[in-house]
Each structure stands twice: as structure tokens, then as C-alpha cells.
Amino acid sequence: MSGIIHDLLKEKGWLLADGATGTNLFNMGLTAGEAPELWNRDQPEKILALYESFLRAGVDMFLTNSFGCNRARLNLHESADDCFELAEMSASLAGEAIARQNCTAIVAGSIGPTGEIMEPLGTLTYARAVEYFHEQAEGLKSGGADVLWIETISSREEFLAAQEACQLAGMPWCGTMSFDTVGYTMMGITPRDLVELVSEMDNKPEGFGANCGAGASDMILTLLAISELNPELPVIAKGNAGIPQIKEGKIHYSGSPEIMAIYAELARNAGARIIGGCCGTTPQHLEQMKTRLERTPMGPKPTHEEVRELLGEPSFTPGGKKRAKAGNRRRRQKK
Amino acid sequence: MTDEEDDIILSELPDDELVPQMHDDLYDGLNEEIVEGVNILLERGWMPYKILTEALVEGMRIVGIDFRDGILFVPEVLLSANAMKAGMKILKPLLAETGAPRMGKMVIGTVKGDIHDIGKNLVSMMLEGAGFEVIDLGINNPVENYLEAMDAEQPDILGMSALLTTTMPYMKVVIDRLKELGLRDDIIVLVGGAPLNEEFGKAIGADAYCRDAAVAVETAKEFMARKHNQMMATA
After folding, report:
1. b vs e for B124-155, b when ≥16 Cβ sit within 10 Å of the residue's Cβ?
2. Residue A2 contacts by C-beta under 8 Å, 6 or more apart in sequence?
3. Between these two residues, B70 and B206, which has the higher pLDDT value?
């Protein structure tokens, strides 16, 4: 195996990834419903400020502000034709931030879901999805991203389409899904399904795992489910800093920097090698996560009890309920 | 799975077996079987409203329970909802003709900046299934769209959905505007979407947060019942 992430992991053992993009931009004046990606062009100094705040917190890698830089999504903001340019800007601003901070870090080009439902349930064809993602991938590549970072995906088809786009762009990639529904993704994918999916791929990611989701406890349980299968590839954990709340009219996440530090330690013990935050994670959270990871030795995998005690009650019981599959659903009422 | 079970002839089943079979078929998202079942019951002289409530709504209620409990996921529920819709298509004109009772009217839409409409579509379909009239504004709605629809449609309920952390605070923008215009008390506001929670719903001034489509139906019914009671009390 080789690759920029692999090499850095070999050197450092674990990597600190960045925190939230959207929720941190809110604190800089982004209003609800506005597309954060437009700020790459309209408010580049704020995007630089966000990137630099992560770099000052000591991250080894960070994501570009390009989560929704695809046609389907930017169409809502009458900017569909600017996908490439905005993606390119998000990555070139990342390079600029690194130069200004005079440090090194991996620039990971963020690729979020299209927001549309793919065939056969929805109307988005696989080919069209690949096209959307490819346009974004080429923009990120052109802007100087080191690796592409597919995130917050809930369906297998969309994960595959985004992966294919990275391959078309000739870029290494990482991919994470959001296990936010009682331990599954919204579309019913389990951590085990994801492990199997990436292990069967020819175009292997440099890392894979989980992001966003439903709080720190759920994230650790998801990581335990992944590491139980002993995947060969490095595992990524980018969980939310708690759950969203409204305080004095502003959005705020419940997880304190102290809690996120515990989360980071448990995430590493649970098998993650690339550890960061998602929604609600600020540079202050990251600083404490970093300190904790540096000061604590690698420990044994946490038990479910420990997770509950240290991070609170998860939203599901692992292995509790099983998804009903077509075929054995029929005639289920007849006993 | 035995062959025998796969060869069920719907038209040969008596009513008390056909209806549970339709619940199963809804659960499995079988469009053709649902259409066939609805037609058989109509031929047997069932009132459209009885078919709607006992065969379709009850079947979707079971789907809703398993969705809520994490046994069914979005793909399965979409298939069930599509089957339900196929049955509804036959019943809808007949329901209007026969003057079936109306549960209430809801305007629903995904907020500005948000393209995700899976949850909203599920809520629409499940509410229609439960007898509500639903006006679907689609995705990416600025506050003006909600206000216009409220003016034009005079709904009982306003439903808002968001799936992104960057869009969910927009619900508060809409509710705050309703308050400014003095319209907030005239309407029941229900909110939903993956990143939300009950506390969040309360904090932005919604009447309730609905965790999923099944909960949305139950909550809508509950609020409509309360509204009727209040009207009775003040009448």
C-alpha cells in the first residue's frame, strides 16, 4: 500500500483531521439556507480564516469547503455552472492557508452527497451521479487537493458513483458514511456492509469509516463494529460534537471540548487511525482532542459499558434489531 | 418461503384474509397486488373509505412501526409508500364522490438551501395515507413560499423538513416570521429531519418535532384532535 495518507500514518501512527465546516461558518456569519461553497468566491478571507483556525489547532489534514459543490445542489442557488470553479477555489484556498501558516497538512477535497435519490428508488441515474461527482473531483484536483474525501453518504450506489468519479479524475480517495439511524445509514447500510463494500473494490480508498451521525457514543459503537472485522485499510472517525441545540437564537452543539477529547481517545482505542470531528466541532475541540491523543497511550478497545459511562447513552443497542430483508418479509404476519 | 405461499390468488381469499394479505403486500411494496386488492374489495361492495382505513392505512401503520423501530429503512418504506400510492390513485376520486371524512390539511416543504426530500416525501405519503390533504411545496423553500401557501390553502398544519446542519436553522427563520406577522397561533407547526431533535424543535418554536414519518402522522392526528376539542369548547 502507498499513498499520502498511508505514508503519514506510517510516520505518525494516527492523524488528527479537522472539525466542522458548515457550523463553524455559521459563527462567521453564514446564514441558514445559504450555500457555504459560494463563500469560496464571495468571502475567501473567511474560508481562509476557517482553514487557518484548523491548522493552528494542529490538524494533520483538513477538508475543503466543497461538500455541496455538485450540480444537483448548487442548482438551488442558481450556481450549477460554477461547480468546477468553486471546487477549485476551495482547494486552492486550502493551499494558500497552509502557505500562510507556514506548515504542512494534507488537503482533502470534500465530496458530499448529491441529495437526490438514485435509481431505482429515485430518479438519479448512476451515470449522472458519476458525472456530477466527476466535475467536482476535477475541480478539486485542479485546485491542488491531495486526496478526495467522500463523506456523509448513506447509499451504496452513491458511494460507488463518487468513488468512480475519483478514479476518473485519477485521484486517491477516502470515503465515509453517516450511520445516523440506529446504527445504520438512512438507507439501511451497516458498518459491516461498508467494510465488505470497500474490501471488494478494485479502486481501494486510502481510508474509510464514519462521519457525522448521531453523537459520540453511536460513533464509537460504529467503530467497534468496523474494527471487529479487522479491516486492512485505515479507519476514519469524524463524529459530531454532540447534538444540535439552540442557545440564544444560535445553533450550538452539546458536546464540550472535554467530551470530544474522550471521544478521540476512545475512537483511537476502538480502531480509528484518522480522527476528527464533524458538525459542531471547533478548533477548541480539536486542540483538546490532539492533547488527549498525544498524552494517552493506545488502550484496549472500549467496552459498550465504558462507552455508555464516558460518553452517554447511545441511540441503539448493537445487534439489537435486524433489518428486514426482501424475501423473508413476505408473509411475515402469518405465524 | 414455500411455493404454496407464492401462489396466493387474491380474489379467492375471503375478506378477513384478503385484508391482512394486503397489509403484507404493502409491507413488501407490491404495487400490482395492492391495486388488485383494492379493486377486489370495491367489487365486493366495500366503501372506499373503509378500504382506505382498514386495508391501506392500517398496512402503512405497520410499516411505520417497523420504520420507527429500525427494522425497515428508507428504501423499503419508499416501496411501501409507492404501493400505497398506487392504491390511493384508485380510491382518491371515489373518496371525493362519497364524501369521506377529512382529517386535516397540511402544507409541507423542505426549507431553503435543502435539496433532500426523502423524509418530506415519506411524511406526505403517510399523511395522505392517513386521510390528510397534503400540499407539497417541494424542496428549497424560502419563507415566502410557506406564507403564500398558507394564505392560498389555509392549512391546519405547516410541516418543515431539513436534512443539513446548514439548513435546519432556517426553520426558525420561518417560525419567527410567522410570529412577526401574528400568524403563528393560527397554525400547527411540525418539524422533522435527521439532524433535529425534540429540544431543538421546541427551542425554535415549533409545536412538535417528529422523528420520522410514522411519528409525524400520529402527531398530526393528535394536534388535529386537540384543535377540534378546542373549537368545540369555544363554540
Report:
1. bbbbbbbbbebbbbebbbebebbbebbeeeeb
2. none
3. B206
Residue B74 vs residue B235, higher pLDDT:
B74
Whether residue A329 is predicted with pLDDT greater than 60 in this model: the reply is no
Query: Cell triple for residue A236?
Result: 476514519
Asked if the C-beta of B229 comes within 8 angstroms of chain A's C-beta atoms, the answer is no
| Nearest beta carbon to residue B195 from set A35, A244, A328 | A244
Q: How do residues B48-102 score in pLDDT, each as one tens digit?
A: 989 988 999 889 888 888 888 889 998 898 889 889 889 989 998 898 787 777 7
pLDDT, tens digit, for every residue of A182-208? 899 989 999 999 999 999 999 999 999
Task: Judge: B28–A324 Cβ closer than 8 Å, yes or no.
Answer: no
Encode chain B in three state secondary structure. CCHHHHCCCHHHCCHHHHHHHHHHHHHCCCHHHHHHHHHHHHHCCCCHHHHHHHHHHHHHHHHHHHHHCCCCCHHHHHHHHHHHHHHHHHHHHHHHHCCCCCCCEEEEEEECCCCCCHHHHHHHHHHHHCCCEEEECCCCECHHHHHHHHHHHCCCEEEEECCCCCCCCHHHHHHHHHHHCCCHHHCEEEEECCCCCHHHHHHCCCCEECCCHHHHHHHHHHHHHHHHHHHHHHC
Q: At what angle do helices B74-97 and B118-129 cross, to 10 degrees?
A: 40
C-alpha cell at A134: 466527476
- Hey, are the CB atoms on A246 and B200 less than 8 Å from each other? yes
Q: Is residue A331 very low, low, confident or very high in pLDDT (cuts 50, 70, 90)?
A: very low
Report d(CA B20, CA B22) in Å as an integer: 5
- Could B111 and A33 be called an inter-chain contact, meaning their C-beta atoms sit closer than 8 Å? yes
Hey, of B13, B73, B139, which one would you mutate to test binding to chain A, going by the most A CBs within 10 A of its CB?
A: B73
φ, ψ at A288 (rounded to 5°): -70, -30
Nearest beta carbon to residue A181 from set B23, B73, B116: B73
Q: What is the pTM of this model?
A: 0.89
Cα dist from A22 to A25, A195, A247, A280, B169, whole Å: 5, 28, 17, 9, 12
Distance from CA of A294 to the nearest CA of B (A): 30
Q: ipTM, 2 decimals?
A: 0.81
- Give the alpha-carbon dihedral of A148, A111, A124, B61, to 10 degrees: 130
Strand order, beta sheet including A173-177 = A15-16, A272-277, A235-239, A207-212, A173-177, A147-153, A106-111, A61-63
